[in-house]
Amino acid sequence: MSKQFDVVVIGAGPGGYIAAIRAAQLGFSVACVDDWKNEKGGPAPGGTCTNVGCIPSKALLQSSEHFEHAGHAFKEHGIDVAGLSLNLEQMIKRKAGVVKQNNDGILYLFKKNKVTFFHGLASFTGAATAEGYPLTISAPANESISAKQIIIATGSNARALPGADFDEKLILSNTGALDIPEVPKKLGVIGAGVIGLEMGSVWRRLGAEVTVLEGLPTFLGAVDEQIAKEANKMFTKQGLSINLGCKINKVTKGDNNVTVEYDNAKGEANTAVFDKLIVSIGRTPNTNGLGADKVGLALDERGFVAVDHDCKTNLPGVWAIGDVVRGPMLAHKAEEEGVAVAERMAGQHGHTNFNTIPWVIYTSPEIAWVGKTEQTLKAEGVAYKAGTFPFLANGRARALGDTSGMVKFLADANTDEILGVHIIGPMASELISEAVVAMEFKASAEDIARICHAHPSLSEATKEAALAIDKRTLNF
Questions:
Q1: EC top class, in one word (predicted)?
Q2: What is the pLDDT of residue 2?
Q3: Is residue 166 part of a domain?
């Protein structure tokens, strides 16, 4: 006899575990099923984000940045470091510890909020009955459960190059890129997106010669063009070799290296040999083992679970959120959808505003943005005003020793409503939150310009960029 719940959440990534907790807070009996395993075979909730994505990559980014600062920047601060050496094993161990803390934290939150957790792979077994949708859970849980409300939050998988499957030893996805046992002399990265740039930055700081091969003719096409050009210049200066407009023709694994044959932007044939190759060309929705065909769950032409604006699927009572549905593949987008769906199930009005979802690339300098880019506004024929302010003129940035980058505001030329904010520079990931709040409340650039910001702080650059909309900066 199956165990019955009001709600079953399939997947315990950022979208799934947050959805489960919110549903429990609203009074539903909730189960969450997830099959991620740690090194000992135990449960490791948190999905790609916690286990092989957001969290471990930030741990390595921080560690590698410390290493680079100790080797290059500390001397300017009057700190002399003698005999600097890299203990990569300890760095990887620390990263694993950070991951485990997050895994354990989610399990604690389930217990605190009375969410029943099952460790295994959940699959639909057939159409809904009077008791709800029947599901089986694989080992180690080996359970049968049912619920009238199902939230699918199964995430995504790394996309492989045709003919170059991941072995996580020579050809690496984001998973293998986090666990390279020794710093490669030559590292290839296919794809100059978020993962490629972040992982490329980590291993460059630790001593690898990094070559990035990007298929598109433009660098960071989704980023504001002015910011992207600044980023390209800075990353190149740091030592990343960024090659745009590349067509990958063949990838061949040797015993201890990988050979990549490609055409450059001019159509010229090139061959490069790397010790390791990271492939970061996007991600695909994960519906493996879900049993979509057994229940008649509709998928779209790209394999995503088809949903409407409210995250409803074609099946009554079945919802889907996060990477497995349309929209940006961002952990915080999944969280927002998870909360919204739980509240909709309770008869409330869940809210997710795609226009104010922030984006961040955790390189150094960081890149963060929200809203429209300048090139998008031009293409849409929107009359706008732009204002920028460089961190070079910010006192706190000078004190930090990191004056790279700028803050850029875009506002409606007639109403002054903020249409987009773009930041490249120190702590951009934190600074962007003010812009998100402002845009959610439909603030004007003038509103930000007239708000008192602490001095000295990096946030003053945000105020100054808002002032620059009307050409009245005070410190530049």
A1: oxidoreductase
A2: 86
A3: no
